[in-house]
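Suppose a colleague, Dr. K., hands you the sequence of a protein chain of 347 amino acids and asks what its three-dimensional shape might be. Before reaching for any lab equipment, you can write down a predicted structure in token form. Begin with the sequence itself:
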Amino acid sequence: AGSASAGLSKQTPRVAQRDRLPPCAHKPAGMALALDFMALLAAEQAAQRKRSAPATAAGSASAASESQAAAAAAATTTTTTMTTTSASVEAHPALGESSLRELAGVARGSGASGPAGETLASAPMQKVVVHNEFLSAACEADLLRCVLSPVYEASGRWVRLRGRRLLQFGGTPMPGPRLLGREPLPPWLGAVVDRLVATGAFPEDKRPNHVLVNAYGPGEGILPHTDGPLYFPCTATLSLGSDAVMRFAPRVPSELVGTSSQSHLEAAKSFDAGLARRSLVVFSDEAYTSALHDVAAVGEHRVTAKCLNAASLGWAEGSLIPRAPLRVSLTMRHVPAVKGATSPKAL
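The predicted structure, expressed as tokens, is then:
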């Protein structure tokens, strides 16, 4: 494993510092530069279009900056690329019976509530809870089979972004808040959401109605961001296929940016959560509203003293946690006010 992880590190270096702040980041009142998810998404899509444009088109557009492209992406919303489906696609993949029974709390004998979560009580920002072994290896494999189904490849749902591929289910969150092109979640995701509600991660009246599926290749990650004001302030992310580390860092008040106080604040309030494969992390309250979170674009994660659940995972400080060739995350959230008709072409 050591030699394999070393190879990953060499061929997939960290994201360059110049790439870490997309140009459409926004600046909330009284706060330093911060990114919400939709701003990050708009910047990533603009950058992807710029990279994939033909050389002739790139030449003619050289006068336009990436920030202008990102602003245009934000102005036109992400609806076109995020909700594209094919009329010829008529059915979602389905989970096996054993996985459905497990997610209903039957097969593993743990009851509907599932495994107990570990609250990172020493975290300087509350509240972060990690559920290890939220599901079995067999159920994980079944969920990965659904994610990687040829149905979604053929439908055009996958969107390529900087550092990952993305599937979206439920619609596109818009200011209001509301879901544009609202669609029901596919049954295989509905079973996971049912388990979340049974576990107590979300109340029944705030059950997730929006899911993003991120697929990360070797050395890929996601930039620091907040999930923004369009959702009920709680996020649940299920990790499949690979271990990873999620970092939480405070949003720094603008008057402290560039001062020694910024470094002191970040040192005092940043922390890591170890996300073993098949684990579920749920964060809310201050960890949702006042922190940026990210997964570094690396081939392996080094465990530090700031990884607050390393002991329960058996991860020794200083050890390297290799990333597998594919990591998939299911990020589930609730958009409070749902408006707009269901898309007639929804899968």
